[in-house]
């Protein structure tokens, strides 16, 4: 009974996370404008998800404890590309995406880097 309930909670969390940003993405696409979306807050959210996901992977936590974060990261990247597309310059997204990809590897060069990144 408890295992079934836990499985239901895990899958429902994944389902909610998969649909979390979809209304925002569809609103941006329908309006054909990124007005009202804060680029700094989107980048901060994306960086936080990335650091948390890398920390969980680095320390070998079970995938079910962090499986929703790749979904959230993908949705944020899509939203980031929409912001730059509707602001007229998709090429400006390249440095941001490059920094995010590089940070995935830099965070685990040394153990103290990942530990410092998640300290409060």
From TrEMBL:
InterPro entries: MannP-dilichol_defect-1, PQ-loop_rpt. GO terms for cellular component: membrane. It is a multi-pass membrane protein. Keywords: Membrane, Transmembrane, Transmembrane helix. It comes from the Eukaryota. It is found in: Membrane. PANTHER family: MANNOSE-P-DOLICHOL UTILIZATION DEFECT 1 LEC35 -RELATED, SOLUTE CARRIER FAMILY 66 MEMBER 3. This is Solute carrier family 66 member 3 isoform c. It comes from Daubentonia madagascariensis.
């Amino acid at each position: 009974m408890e295992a079934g309930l836990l499985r239901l909670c895990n899958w429902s969390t994944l389902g909610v996370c998969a649909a979390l940003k979809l209304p925002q993405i569809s609103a941006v696409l329908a309006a054909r404008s990124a007005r009202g979306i804060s680029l700094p807050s989107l980048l901060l959210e994306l960086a936080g998800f990335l650091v948390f996901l890398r920390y969980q992977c680095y320390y070998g936590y079970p995938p079910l404890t962090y499986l929703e974060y790749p979904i959230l990261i993908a949705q944020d990247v899509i939203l980031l590309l929409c912001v730059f597309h509707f602001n007229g310059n998709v090429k400006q997204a390249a440095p941001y995406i490059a920094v995010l990809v590089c940070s995935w590897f830099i965070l685990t060069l040394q153990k103290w880097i990942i530990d410092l990144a998640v300290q409060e």
